[in-house]
Structures are given as C-alpha cells and as structure tokens.
Amino acid sequence: MQKKRSKNYWPHGIIISLLLIVCACIYTIVEAVRYPVELDTYYFDTKQNVDRNYDKIRASQENFDKKYTVFFEINGAKNGSLTVGGDNSARVVINSKDKGTCDIDADVKLLLTRPETNDYNQNLTFTNTEKCRWFFAPVTIEKVGRWQFQTKITIGEDIGFFTHETNTTNFQ
C-alpha cells in the first residue's frame, strides 16, 4: 500500500502574503509621491512658511474662533451643493460672537478645489459685502464629484482658515 501524500499550502500562502505586502508598500509610496504635502493649499502659503509659523497660525486661529463664527452658503442654501454646468454662487457668512453686529472689516480669500488634485483650483473673485455676507463671482463646475471651498479670513490681527466640503448634483 502506498501512503497518500498530503499537500501543504502554507508556504505558498506565506510567500503570496509577503508579495502582497510589498506591492501595497510600493503603491503607498507611488501615491505619496504623486500628491506631495507641498501641494496642500489649506493655509494659502508654502509648506515651509507654515512649518516655520505654525504656532502663530494656531494661536491666531484660536483667537479668531473665540470672536467669530463662519459658515458657507452655496447656491443660496447653508451648506448647499454645487451644480454641474451652471453658475454656482458662493457666500461666506461671518458673525461676531460678542458684538452681534455685522460691522466687520474682513479680507476674505476663497479657493474652490478638488481634494485629490490641484488641477481644478479656482480662486473666486470677491464682488461685494451685504448683511454679514461676502459674495463671490459665480463659478461654473464641469466635473462631477467632491469639491472643497477653502477660505482664509483676515480680520485685524486674527486669521482664520476654514474648509467646506460639498458635492455636485446632477446636470442642469
């Protein structure tokens, strides 16, 4: 009688697992190189200046948050959505926490971007101010997906940075 030989697949599984881990590491490195941190536009400044002045930026942001509240109105609705193919309006609303008035002299910069790339960045043009709202020129969106409004607001010595995530709705 011949003894039946059983096959052991553990060595194959271990080798395949190690190869998959190496492939995942290579993929992670390739993606990190494609989207380096230098392309981050959150602070509207270079990475080196942000690194050098980060403590001042955080302190200014904390002071700003103590004094003011900020929210976005997209296409007339608080936290609204963008539409593809049409004009989209954007407003930044700034309210003073302690005064309760809208008499604020603010410099507002607004950038529309996609989170995964800088290819579609659009600096929106400020048009006017009315009742605590900073209005920007209409913008046309041609690509469906996820978008971000990044804002830098300067009021005196206080600087605040804000991001608003939004998605596009169907075609018009």
List keywords for this structure.
alpha+beta; Immunoglobulin-like; 3 helices
The helicity comes to: 25-40%
What would the principal axes of the Cα set say about the shape?
elongated
Architecture, CATH level 2? Sandwich
- Counted up, domains total 1
Which CATH class applies here?
Answer: Mainly Beta
Largest sheet: 5 strands, antiparallel
Report strand %: 35-45%
Instruction: Give the mean pLDDT.
Output: 86
Enumerate how many helices there are, as a single number.
3
SSE ordering:
HHHEEEEEEEEEE
Number of strands: 10
- Main sheet strand line-up: 2-1-4-8-7
Question: What is this entry, summarized?
Answer:
With 172 residues, the chain is α+β, with helices and mostly antiparallel strands. It has helices at residues 10-34, 47-52, 54-67; strands at 68-74, 77-78, 82-84, 87-96, 107-114, 117-124, 126-130, 133-140, 146-155, 158-171. The termini are far apart.
Secondary-structure blueprint:
Layout: H1 10-34, H2 47-52, H3 54-67, E1 68-74, E2 77-78, E3 82-84, E4 87-96, E5 107-114, E6 117-124, E7 126-130, E8 133-140, E9 146-155, E10 158-171
What does it look like?
The chain has a single domain, classed as Sandwich (Immunoglobulin-like). It is 26% helix and 44% strand. It has helices spanning 10-34, 47-52, 54-67, and strands spanning 68-74, 77-78, 82-84, 87-96, 107-114, 117-124, 126-130, 133-140, 146-155, 158-171. The strands form 2 sheets. A 5-stranded antiparallel β-sheet has the order 2-1-4-8-7. Strands 3-10-9-5-6 form a 5-stranded mixed β-sheet.
